[in-house]
User: Which sequence fits this backbone?
C-alpha cells in the first residue's frame, strides 16, 4: 500500500475567526475556505501553549508542555521524537520550509530536509562560549522586543522581514515539490517515496505590515475592538493597549487592517503551493492536507494585544483536515481538540503505529463523524504555573498560588467577560477541575509521579 502524501500548512498567530469559512464577512481567504468546504473544520481546536516556542514543540512531539519539558520558551531536547522523525522512519521524505523555532543544535528534529527556514541556534547554547565576550553584546531584557503599543502605532503599509521570509519559504516549498515529483533537470523520478511537506509561515505575526493594496482594501472595512471590558484579573489584564489613551481609533484600525491583510497574504501563498502540487501532476484529493496555527492573536479584544492568554482569541486556533479519499468533507466538529492530537491523527491516517507516551488522541473517529468515545477535554499551559483545562463549554484556569482561578462558561457567556469561579452552581465542576489539575502535575495538590495526560 502506498502511503498518502501529506501537506501541512501552518501560520503563526492566526485567530480562527479571521477566516471566511469561520463566518468573517470581511477577510479574503478563498483558499482556506475551499479547504474548509471540502474538508473537516474543528471549531474548538486549542493550542497546548499560547506562545510560539512551546506551542510548536508540543505540536511536533504530541505532548503537553509538562510532558515534553517545554514549560516556557524552551525547545525540545535534541533527538526528541517528533512526528517528522516518526514519519521519516517509515520512509517518508519529511520536508519543512519555514518556521520551526528550534533553538538547540538539533535543527532538524526529524526532518530529512529543510530547504529554507529559521535555522539558527540560540547563542546561549553555543558550545564553549566565552562568556565575557557574549556579555559585551547582551541587550537588556526590556529592549528584547517593542511594546504592544509601539507595534500598534507602527502598523500600516510595509514589507517586513516576515513577508519576505514567507514568500521565500513558499518558493522553496514549490521548488521542493517540483524536485520530488519531477526533478526535470536530472529527470530522476522520486514520486514513489511519500512526502510529508510542511509549509510553515510566520504571518500574521506582528509587525503588522502589509502591501498597499491589501492595506487599502481592509482599512475602511475592519472594525477594531474599542469599547472592551478589561478583566481585573492580574494576568488577564496584562498587555493592554488602551483606545484613546495609548493609541487612537485610527491607529487601532490601521493595525487591524494590516493584520487582516497578512491573513489575506498567507492565503494567497498557500494557493501557490496547491497550484504547484497540481502542476507536477498530483491530485489534491489524494493528499492529506492540514491547516492550523500555533496560537491566536488578541487583536485588541478584551483590551489586550498579542497572545499568552487563554481567551478564545489567543488560545483557540484554526484547524482544517482534508482528505477526500479518506473521509467525507464539508463538516464541522464541535468537540474540544488540541494541536497535540495531530501526531496520533496523522499517524493513524497514514497507517503508522501511534507511539506510546503521547498526549495525543487520534481525531480519526471525529473525522468519520463518531464522537461516542471522545474525551471532550483540551489542555493548555503558559509558563510553569498558568494552566487551562476546557471540558465541554467550561474553561477552567489556574494561575499559580498568588493569583485567583478563573472559570468561563462559553455556553452562557461566549464573550468570556463573566467569571463563574465563585458561583455555587459551579462548585462541583470546580472541584473536579482542581482534581484534574493535580493529575496533570499542577497546583497545590499536584501528583508527584506525573508522566502524561493519561489519554
Assistant:
Amino acid at each position: 500500500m502506498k502511503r498518502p502524501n501529506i501537506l501541512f500548512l501552518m501560520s503563526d498567530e492566526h485567530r480562527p475567526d479571521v477566516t471566511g469559512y469561520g463566518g468573517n464577512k470581511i477577510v479574503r481567504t478563498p483558499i482556506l475556505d475551499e479547504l474548509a468546504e471540502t474538508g473537516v473544520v474543528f471549531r474548538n481546536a486549542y493550542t497546548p501553549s499560547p506562545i510560539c516556542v512551546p506551542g510548536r514543540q508540543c505540536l511536533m512531539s504530541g505532548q503537553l508542555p509538562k510532558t515534553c519539558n517545554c514549560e516556557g520558551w524552551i525547545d525540545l531536547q535534541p533527538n526528541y521524537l517528533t512526528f517528522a522523525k516518526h514519519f521519516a522512519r517509515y520512509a517518508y521524505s519529511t520536508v519543512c520550509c519555514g518556521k520551526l523555532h528550534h533553538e538547540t543544535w538539533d535543527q532538524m528534529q526529524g526532518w530529512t530536509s529543510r530547504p529554507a527556514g529559521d535555522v539558527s541556534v540560540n547563542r546561549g547554547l553555543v558550545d564553549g562560549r566565552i562568556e565575557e565576550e557574549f556579555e559585551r553584546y547582551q541587550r537588556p531584557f526590556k529592549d528584547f522586543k517593542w511594546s504592544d503599543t509601539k507595534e500598534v502605532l507602527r502598523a500600516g503599509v510595509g514589507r517586513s522581514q516576515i513577508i519576505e521570509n514567507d514568500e521565500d519559504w513558499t518558493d522553496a516549498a514549490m521548488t521542493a515539490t517540483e524536485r520530488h515529483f519531477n526533478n526535470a533537470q536530472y529527470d530522476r523520478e522520486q514520486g514513489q517515496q511519500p512526502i510529508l511537506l510542511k509549509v510553515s509561515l510566520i504571518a500574521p505575526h506582528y509587525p503588522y505590515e502589509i502591501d498597499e493594496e491589501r492595506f487599502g482594501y481592509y482599512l475602511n472595512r475592519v472594525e477594531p475592538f474599542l469599547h472592551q471590558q478589561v478583566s481585573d484579573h492580574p494576568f488577564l489584564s496584562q498587555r493592554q493597549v488602551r483606545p484613546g489613551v495609548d493609541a487612537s481609533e485610527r491607529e487601532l484600525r490601521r493595525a487591524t487592517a494590516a493584520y487582516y491583510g497578512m491573513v489575506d497574504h498567507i492565503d494567497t501563498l498557500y494557493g501557490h503551493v496547491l497550484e504547484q502540487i497540481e502542476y507536477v501532476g498530483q491530485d489534491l484529493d489524494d493528499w492529506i492536507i492540514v491547516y492550523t496555527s500555533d496560537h491566536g492573536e488578541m487583536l485588541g479584544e478584551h483590551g489586550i494585544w498579542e497572545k499568552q492568554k487563554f481567551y478564545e482569541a489567543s488560545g483557540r486556533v484554526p484547524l482544517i483536515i482534508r482528505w477526500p479519499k479518506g473521509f467525507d468533507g464539508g463538516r464541522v466538529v464541535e468537540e474540544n481538540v488540541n494541536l497535540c492530537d495531530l501526531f496520533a491523527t496523522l499517524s493513524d491516517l497514514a497507517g503508522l503505529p501511534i507511539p506510546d507516551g503521547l498526549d495525543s488522541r487520534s481525531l480519526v473517529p471525529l473525522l468519520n463523524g463518531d464522537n461516542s468515545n471522545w474525551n471532550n477535554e483540551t489542555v493548555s499551559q503558559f509558563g510553569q504555573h498558568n494552566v487551562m483545562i476546557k471540558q465541554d463549554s467550561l474553561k477552567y484556569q489556574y494561575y499559580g498560588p498568588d493569583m485567583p482561578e478563573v472559570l468561563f462558561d462559553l455556553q452562557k457567556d461566549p464573550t468570556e467577560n463573566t467569571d463563574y469561579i465563585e458561583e455555587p452552581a459551579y462548585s462541583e465542576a470546580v472541584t473536579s477541575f482542581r482534581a484534574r489539575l493535580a493529575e496533570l502535575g499542577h497546583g497545590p495538590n499536584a501528583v508527584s509521579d506525573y508522566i502524561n495526560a493519561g489519554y
